[in-house]
Amino acid sequence: MCMTVAEVPPPVLTDAAWRGDELMKGDTWIYQLDEAQVAAKNGGMALGLIADLAVGMDAGGSHAWSRPDDLITGLSVGAPPDILGPEGQNWGITGFSPQGLRRTAFEPFVATIRAALAHAGGIRIDHAMGLQRLWVVPDGKSAADGAYLSYPLDDMLRILAIESQAAQAIVIGEDLGTVPEGFRPRLDDRHVLGMRVMPFEADGDRLKPPANYSPQAAAMTGTHDLPTIAGWWRGRDIAVKRDLGLFTPDEEERARARAGWWDSFVEAGVAEGVQPSPDEPAPVVAAALAYVGLTPCEVAILPLEDIAGLVEQPNVPGTTTEHPNWRRRMPADTPAMLAEPATAANLALLEKARTR
Q1: What span, in angstroms and rounded, lies between the C-alpha atoms of 194 and 190?
Q2: Statement to judge: residues 25 and 55 lie in one domain
Q3: What is the domain extent for residue 32?
Q4: Are residues 274 and 334 in the same domain?
Q5: CA 352, CA 348: separation in Å to the nearest integer?
Q6: Residue 162 located in a structural domain
Q7: What is the DSSP string of 131-178?
Q8: Which of 163, 191, 219 delimits the end of a domain?
Q9: Of 10, 161, 248, 278, which one is least surrounded by beta carbons within 10 A?
Q10: Contacts of 280 (CB under 8 A, 6+ apart)
């Protein structure tokens, strides 16, 4: 992607040190991704890294500078009001223009997919519903004032199928939130794995039995937008949302859900005995990891926070500066965390469940 000096905003041109440092950091990051993928494959992993394909891009980034006609303008991508974000969400990013994609024969989308798969054995498409429609918010308006912008779903799914087959990679689509009717069957037709997140796979307070999960999916204990298992059991998310003035479930509702979860774990054979108290999350974390492992889903994905039994969640939807999203440090580096006896025991439970 080429860019003339005239197209680059003046502040960037006047800060040569920033350009050099940031470019070096970017190159180093890409290099370590490649090294990590090689190490993963050499270590016997079938997939290695799974890259995350963002739903959009920075309106002040290189793509917007060099090829503005590829992108929508005057609008930000977000999400309508839902249970995770009652006020809606404005993510402060832009996205591809449907007209721009057609005009360029989808070349920017193809290039994006290829770049994402260059150092990975698969991709997770953030907010996969964006393949069909995006909630866009006019500049200066609230997220609740947005509307849906339609995208050519069939064309984009065909491109995903071609590129993933060429790269011999899996594709996971984050199909959570407000999902258009008929969207998930369209993903199934192209073998895009949906995300089946344990807390959402429930009937009232009881969890769906592992055997009832769809094989063509990725089973998960949670996502970055949800409380960790330990945090949920302790009720940490209730306290955080209450402090932030966000919608929260009440304590009685959480108590019923705890009982339902524990009964579900016992029936599945991944837990036994009396239900632990809210300040004893460790047995619940272990049971949840094994529970997800028992599903017939093609892939099981576990957040590091759940493997390590951490309490704080990485991100609280609907917040920006109000909460330290994406700024929490892990208690140790990854090798040290994985070497912890409790973490190793949790991973052993998962392995045992997946090989049943």
Answers
A1: 11
A2: no
A3: 17-46
A4: yes
A5: 6
A6: yes
A7: GTEEEEEETTS-GGG-EEEE--HHHHHHHHHHHHHHHT-EEEE---SS
A8: 191
A9: 10
A10: none
Are 239 and 255 within one domain? yes
Please list the pLDDT of the chain residue by residue as tens digits (356 residues): 444 434 555 455 455 555 566 667 777 878 888 888 888 888 888 888 999 999 999 998 889 888 999 999 999 999 898 876 778 889 999 999 999 999 999 999 999 999 999 999 999 999 999 999 999 999 999 999 999 999 999 999 999 999 999 999 999 999 998 899 999 999 999 999 999 999 999 999 999 999 999 999 999 999 999 999 999 999 999 999 989 888 777 899 999 999 999 999 999 999 999 999 999 999 999 999 999 999 999 999 999 999 999 999 999 987 888 999 999 899 999 889 989 999 999 999 999 999 87
H, E, C per residue of 32-74: HHHHHHHHHHHCCCCCCCEEEECCCECCCCHHHHHCHHHECCC
Q: How many domains does the chain have?
A: 3
